Amino acid sequence: TGMSCPQKTSPPGYQGGKNTSALRGGLADAITNLVNSDPRKDAFKTYLEPCAGMLNVMYTLVAGKKLSFVDSWLADDINPDVVALLKAGIATGSDSFPTFDTFTESNYKEHATSSMDADREGNAERAFYALATTWTNIWFNGWNDNIATDASGGRPYKLANFRTGLDNLRAGLKDTGVVVECKDLFDRDTPKNAIVYVDPPYMDNTFNKNPYFQWDANMRRLFWARMKEWSKPEHGNLVLVSEYADVQDVDGWECVWE
Length: 258
Description:
alpha/beta, 7 helices, 7 strands, 33% helix
């Protein structure tokens, strides 16, 4: 993965999430270094992630106190279930979620076949079942009888890790002022004097199965147009974007970390 900007102990996993500690730490450190070297640093009071996933990068920044001068931490995701899961995780950790004894295939199927209406209120338990059931963290990728065990036999590995990730969210983010909202990036007003880190879906990525939108060439074009607007000098933002693909076709951007 790489990170571009205009020329001039982890939470749970999520599709596309930066949940490998070395990668997450590398991104957080890279962001910190880029912010600290920016002459506008003293004006940055807001940190915004419009495609927050499971908050892996923000968690590392906040819990590690890497940007202590930031007053406002804003996280958006378009999936209402994920937003509900994040809010519950930050507030109560894994306390309200299924344990090994109650995590069943029948409950999985019930959640997997429930309404996909994007306008409904988010269901945290539904997101829990969707993301804690596959090693690849693809949204409802099918029940796996081995999900609660490892190869050596019997240890509730994946489920235990996911629950621990929720507990980490509570330990690292509760009472820190992090605000999580269900919001489409295209509905977010242009930020001002902000650090903006965006990890959008990637073109032609088979892991991208978010049920609430499809990321195609047109969406990618609109996305980069929005990023270009946010990065205009009059807004005072530092805009950083993660992307697997070569961004040389995106006019006016350069790779700053990979």
